[in-house]
Structure formats: C-alpha cells, structure tokens
Amino acid sequence: MDYASRLLQQDRAKAEDVVQEAWIRLSARHGQGAEILNPLHYMYSIVRNLALDVLQRRTRETVADTALAPYDTIPLEQPSAEDVVFHRERLRVLAEAIAELPERTQVAFRMYRLEENTLQVIADHLGISVARTFQLVRDAGAHATRRLMGQSGVSNERK
Questions:
Q1: What tens digit of pLDDT does each residue of 92-133 get?
Q2: How far, in Å, are 36, 62, 64, 111 from residue 134 at the CA level?
Q3: DSSP 8-state secondary structure symbol assigned to residue 115
Q4: 156 is a domain residue
Q5: pTM summary value
Q6: Long-range contacts: 107-113, Cβ < 8 Å, 24+?
C-alpha cells in the first residue's frame, strides 16, 4: 500500500484502488493456472503499471480541463485597473518629487536611474567628482522615497 501511495503522490484512496485491482489481476492470473515464480515481484510490477496508468490519466484530464476552461478563468497578463491607478499615482508623486530638486540633482538622478549610466559617466557630464555624483543620486533617491512614503500614508517622522 505504501509503495502505491508513494507512486501516486500520497493519494491513499487511489493507492487502495490500485492495490485492490492489482490483487484481482494477480488472483485471476493464478486462477487460470499460470505459474508465477515470484508473486511479490509480479504484484509490485502490476501496482507500478496501474499507478502509471492513473498518473497518465490524471495528466490527460488536467490538460483537457485546461484546454476547455472558460476564458474568464484564464488569468490576464494585464494589471488590474486598481493597480494601474495606484502606480500612476506613485509615478506622479515621484515626478513631482524629482521636479522639486535642483537641476543638477535631477540630471544625475535621471542619468543614473532611468538611463542607467555609471557614476563616472554622470560625473564627467556634470563636471563633478564621482563622490559628489553619488551624493546627488543618493539624495534624490532619499527625497523621492520620503515623498512616496508620505503619499502612501506612512509616517516618516522620527520619534
């Protein structure tokens, strides 16, 4: 029984059915006068084959059920309307937060986060050190985070 259960992914009820069917087949074969040299091995073979049949049937049924599923049960790859509104609002707040920053900080942030330039490329473009460029990007990110956190109702006050 445990062998059949393991083969059937711990489905004890189906394992009982398989073992019972295997026993019936073994008994029928023995009742016909056939000599079975190793009945235990033969029984395990019957159980294994029946279990594989059950698993194959399950797979076919699952594929058929999926193919015939109503279209309204198939998940959409598009975000929900609520998600769109939420993210648009966050994007608006982020744009406003960046617009509040000095021009050079805006440029550094845009080049680093949106255009994915290295700090060295940004420093060369702005004519400042890499350390100062890092500070500008960090400060812009911190400002944007504070604004986004304030927008979502989470308090940033230190106690």
A1: 999 999 999 999 999 999 999 989 999 999 999 999 999 999
A2: 80, 54, 56, 12
A3: S
A4: no
A5: 0.46
A6: 108/133, 108/136, 108/137, 108/140, 109/136, 109/137, 109/140, 109/141, 109/144, 112/137, 113/137, 113/141
Q: How far apart are CA 109 and CA 136, in angstroms?
A: 7
Query: For the chain, percent helix, then strand, then coil, each to nearest 5?
Result: 75, 0, 25
Q: How many domains does the chain have?
A: 2
Q: State whether 57 and 86 are in the same domain.
A: no
- Shared domain for 59 and 107, answered yes or no, is no
Mark whether 87 and 145 lie in a shared domain. yes
Residues 59 and 39 in one domain: yes
Q: Could you tell me the residue range of the domain that residue 120 belongs to?
A: 81-151
